[in-house]
Amino acid sequence: MPTSTPTRTTRVGRVTAVALVLGVLAAGAPQAAEAATPVATTPDPVWQQRASATYDAMQDALYTGSAGHGLYRENTDTSTGNPYSFLWEYREATQAALDLQGLPGVGPAYANSAAARVAGFEHYHAVAPGGRPGYESYLPAPLGTGGDVYYDDNAVVGLSFVSQYQATDDPAALDHARAAFDIAVRSWNSDASLTCPGGSDWIDRPDNTTRAANVTGLTAQLAAHLYEETKDAAYLRWSTKLYDWNNRCLRESPGLYRNSLGDDGSVDPTLWTYNSGAMIGTATILYRATDDPKYLQQAAAAARASLRYWTTDDRLQQQPAIFNAFYLKDLLLLDSVQHDPSYRAAAEQWATATWRDNRDPATGLFHFQPSGGGDPAWDRPAATLDQAAMIQVFAALGWSSDRLGDVS
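^ thats the sequence. predicted structure below, dont judge the formating
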């Protein structure tokens, strides 16, 4: 492991020390002072129980086992569709295992599953003619027919490698995270003639015309993690460049980001929770990595404003569960640096209501509308993506508060 890479203990200690300095410099600023005195708390065991129960249900219904190369089906309907899931579903199931690995007490029992799922990413990896590598949206030969390289998929695969590195200190996981970043950052659009030049293309294809908030924010978050772990200044430059573009070109208001900007100048104004989350997560990690208080201030402002929006008129409930998993985990990440009880309260309220309303007690599986959110559609096949989302949120709520710095 590189000597410049801080251990998890060092990282937490450094954040606490910085917060103490901020508390001294900003006497009378209650948020800074509050950040100076984090107290480890033990979460309600119900979250670990729900995470484990949902994981068991997902494995029973959707995991293909060793005969199926350790992959997942897209949903419980085996009569149509592909024999295996797309990369997106596989990544989220993998992240679910990684988040279970972080649970106090029972976490080590999931270490082998997490390692196997992470290793399984290679099933989706291919090198296109001309030597252009990437994790494809569907399995390449021999297991499938391949697919396009979506840059948001590759950014979140990189985030999973970071999670595995933080859990194990395995330098190979960090190497894979860096390689995934090299794929994701190819998304940067260098056409200076476009409206608001820059930003990240959505898909690695010549006919792509979309620069997307999700790719830009998630790649910024991955770069921030890699800077924190390696101190390679190139990652800091990329993270701030990507983060600043989203704020300059797609921010509607603090914590809310329009979906995308077309090369023709058109804007898709749709708001998604995971775009809020990626920017909160990026700012939080940049604060930890640089000691610059502006990033903490920006993260907190985005969190407060976005929570006001998303918790009004059942908007959070209507969002896809997997997008909420990103958002709520990024709020918990921020909470690890600057405590605000509203972050956990929002996550617990949504998780409690979803367990009550969307879970089939006979199967232990969750059902949502075709959008991936909203009220249960009991006749819709249970989807891997939805089960993985719930496991991630339940598991993160089950982590001890002194570990939440590794939750993103």
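Residues 8-25 form the longest helix (18 residues).
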